[in-house]
Design brief:
alpha/beta, Four Helix Bundle (Hemerythrin (Met), subunit A), 53% helix, Rossmann fold, 2 domains, 12 helices, elongated, binds magnesium ion, binds guanosine-5'-diphosphate
Length: 310
């Protein structure tokens, strides 16, 4: 498929995936500014409510309202319709630094990606989608079943491995995840693997153990392969709002996180959470998931995201 066509089609998927957020955020903003009303305190209050409800977060919301007030004072903004443009520009400004295309992964040496996140956020599915994408672009991918807690988790990864043609390194259920990682690094070196993606467990009720387990895996990677892990991607479920923000702080502080994968944007009206993550966490969003199909995961492009939303 031609590059241009593929871009258009993902843009359509993205638009469709963001339809719930569009309906809540943009439609409400349109309602607020509809007609010949003046920009006054009531309007600011309604705007604040709408932005908070769509999960854009208090920091961004108050900054935006201050910016609008400033412009009104300087007489640069006199009709409510122009508010929408300010909102859009501010969103793009916050999101622009995010995103980093896969093409930056060097093709000639091992690149290790460790996936972390609580159960059910979409780690294993995302690994499948990533492996499919990388393999489709000619990269040699290997998957590592370091979520050894449930047999089903290992089987699920093997299904994705078959679909994308990527070998899966595994041991028995209950094995030490770090031992699986150790094995995988040895096989990756001997089989000239380019991208190694490590699936991990996410049972949060044993939070301390989980964090210790992840740190141990990270130490093994650092010791066995210089520069590894090259990425630690935290998978967050966009439908979980404040919980996702709390999880991000915890994983960031405990294990370190180089980027975020935000899944299930198709299932929520609170897609404004991308703004919150960018503004409040200081961790770039690398990928977004807008559905369960293999094609529904893409590198995050802030400007494209905002254009799809408006
Ligand atoms: N709608 C939707 N569902 C998703 C997305 N990503 C993952 N899922 C679903 O979320 C569920 C949990 O995914 P899984 O990969 O097993 O999560 P894990 O426990 O973190 O490994 C599965 O049913 C996936 O199909 C997404 O972007 N959109
Ligand atoms: Mg899993």
């Amino acid at each position: 498929m031609a590059e241009g066509n593929e871009k258009t089609s993902f843009f359509e998927r993205l638009k469709k995936g963001l339809s719930k957020t569009r309906q809540s955020l943009i439609r409400n903003v349109d309602q607020i500014i509809f007609g010949e009303r003046v920009i006054d305190a009531d309007l600011f209050e309604e705007l604040e409510e709408t932005l908070i409800a769509a999960d854009l977060g208090p920091t961004f919301t108050y900054e935006l309202i201050d910016e609008i007030k400033e412009r009104v004072k300087r007489k640069e903004l006199d009709n409510p319709e122009a508010l929408k443009k300010v909102l859009k520009d501010q969103m793009i400004g916050i999101l622009r630094p995010d995103g980093k295309p896969d093409e930056e992964i060097p093709p000639d040496r091992l690149h290790v990606i460790m996936m972390v996140g609580v159960n059910g956020t979409g780690k294993t599915t995302t690994i499948g989608k990533l492996a499919h994408g990388f393999a489709g672009r000619g990269r040699r991918v290997m998957l590592v079943a370091a979520d050894t807690f449930r047999a089903a988790a290992i089987e699920q990864l093997e299904v994705w491995g078959r679909r994308s043609g990527a070998p899966v390194v595994k041991q028995k259920m209950g094995a030490d995840p770090s031992a699986v990682v150790f094995d995988a690094l040895k096989s990756a070196a001997s089989q000239e693997v380019n991208i190694l993606i490590v699936d991990t467990a996410g049972r949060l009720h044993t939070k301390v153990n989980l964090m210790e387990e992840l740190k141990k895996m990270k130490r093994i990677m650092e010791r066995e392969s210089p520069g590894a892990p090259h990425q630690i991607l935290l998978v967050l479920d966009a439908t979980t709002g404040q919980n996702a923000i709390n999880q991000a702080r915890m994983f960031r502080d405990e294990v370190g996180v180089t980027g975020i994968v935000l899944t299930k944007l198709d299932g929520t009206a609170k897609g404004g959470i991308v703004i919150r993550i960018a503004r409040e966490l200081g961790i770039p969003i690398r990928y977004i998931g807008v559905g369960e199909d293999l094609e529904d995961l893409r590198p995050f492009d802030g400007e494209q995201f905002v254009n799809a939303l408006f």
